[in-house]
């Protein structure tokens, strides 16, 4: 059996990247990317949802991200999902992140939206989905 853990995210940075040095001497940079989804609801009204994605990148790419990207920059990220956990004051905390294998720099701010292709993401009506056809 083959398992797949692949993520592709394209959006704008919500904050400046933050670079830290690991004990090994390698650098790690973290930042977050916002993506939006525009669709029409059942009544035909335009709706917009925003998602925020935590990204971490290591090595030479971490250096480049910290050097060239800033809040508002556009970026395309490919990587894998990873959830880490830790204890904080006796409470188990969790954080799911995209560990980036590849980061491509894009347009900045509003220009990023203009440069991206327009995709119609209209949600199909619920009655169009037949639950009996879902295999799980």
Overview of this protein structure:
- The chain has 136 residues and is mainly β.
- The chain has a single domain (7-108), classed as OB fold (Dihydrolipoamide Acetyltransferase, E2P) (Beta Barrel).
- It contains two helices and six strands.
- A five-stranded mixed beta barrel has the order 1-3-4-6-5.
- A hairpin with a 5-residue loop joins strand 2 and strand 3 (27-40).
- The radius of gyration is 18 Å and the shape is globular.
Report the span from N to C terminus.
Answer: 17 Å
| Helix and strand run | EEEEHEEH
Q: Which CATH first-tier class would you pick?
A: Mainly Beta
* Mean pLDDT value: 84
Note the total helix count.
2
Principal-axes geometry comes out as: globular
Biggest β-sheet: strands ordered side by side in the sheet = 1-3-4-6-5
Beta-strand share of residues: over 45%
The CATH superfamily is known as Nucleic acid-binding proteins
Q: State the CATH topology.
A: OB fold (Dihydrolipoamide Acetyltransferase, E2P)
Give the proportion of residues in helices.
10-25%
Structural class designation: mainly beta
Major sheet, described briefly?
5 strands, mixed, barrel
């Amino acid at each position: 059996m083959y398992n797949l853990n692949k993520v592709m995210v394209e959006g704008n940075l919500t904050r400046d990247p933050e670079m830290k040095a690991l004990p090994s001497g390698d650098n790690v940079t973290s930042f977050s990317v916002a993506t939006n989804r525009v669709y029409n609801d059942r009544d035909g009204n335009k709706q917009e949802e925003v998602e925020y994605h935590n990204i971490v990148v290591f090595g030479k790419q971490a250096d480049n991200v910290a050097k060239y990207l800033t809040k508002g920059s556009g970026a395309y990220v490919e990587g894998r999902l990873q959830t880490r956990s830790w204890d904080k004051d006796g409470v188990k905390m969790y954080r799911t992140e995209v560990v980036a294998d590849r980061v491509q720099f894009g347009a900045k701010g509003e220009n990023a939206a203009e440069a991206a292709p327009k995709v119609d993401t209209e949600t199909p009506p619920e009655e169009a989905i037949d639950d009996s056809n879902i295999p799980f």
